[in-house]
Design brief:
This protein is mainly alpha-helical. Among the domains are: 1-55; 125-182, no CATH class. It has helices at residues 2-20, 29-55, 74-90, 98-124, 131-142, 148-157, 162-182, 190-206, 214-243, and strands spanning 63-67, 70-73, 247-249. A 3-stranded antiparallel β-sheet has the order 2-1-3. Strand 1 (63-67) and strand 2 form a beta hairpin. Helix 4 packs across helix 9 (214-243) and helix 5 packs across helix 7 (162-182). It catalyses: [protein]-peptidylproline (omega=180) = [protein]-peptidylproline (omega=0).
Amino acid sequence: MKKMMTLFMNGFLAVVLAACGGNEESDGANNEDKAMTAEADQQKQMEDMQKKLEEQQIDEEKTVAIVNDEEIMGSQYNNALASSQGQMQQMGQDPTSKEAAEQIKTQTIDSLVGQTLLLQEADQKGYQASESDINEKLDEVKGQFKTEEEFEAALKESGMDMKSLKAQVAQDIQLQQYVEKEVPAGEVSDEEIQTTYDQYAEQGKAANQEVPKLEEMKPQIEQSLQQQKQQEQLVQQVEKLKENAEIDIKI
């Protein structure tokens, strides 16, 4: 949410600064004109990209999939889609190309189906987010903003309200509880840590970068490998749940 607001403010400020600077004269006027033109071009590119991204969205009321009689709606799909699009952009890739769009669509549906199956399993096993845990997490989210007004604006910009945000936070906590108990992080051997460090060191030397000692990096490497193993186990758990699930993809 905060990232979207940052993008919006950058574009808004570019327009305002261009308008305010229109009557100023100086020896560097030509340079200012070029800078303003560049800003305008950049703003147009951002707007064009945003339009293309939004074209990939679907009707919020449309049923995307049915998982064990539970519907996944277009609103859920669009939120997950935006996250996938953002991740691809961060990797320097264009999520609006034909190939990427199909890839994102498939990944988004798979992710939503997997999440739904895990949440259903969490419900059956009795995992629930307490009101205090939900409120604590909401306070963390609000703490990312300077004022309540800024938070409310970002919430509106994201197409959510407090009710939907609270529901999302509750699901996140419930899923986290389930994963921590049912899919614990795997143990990592010293040999695995050494192998990973050697690979990192080799890459660092090839790039003429200073490589920290193993002792300094060991905790970070161990945590990363544990997360990888947990992720692999989570994928296996989803595949296992799919075997006995009724899944109907509608798009």
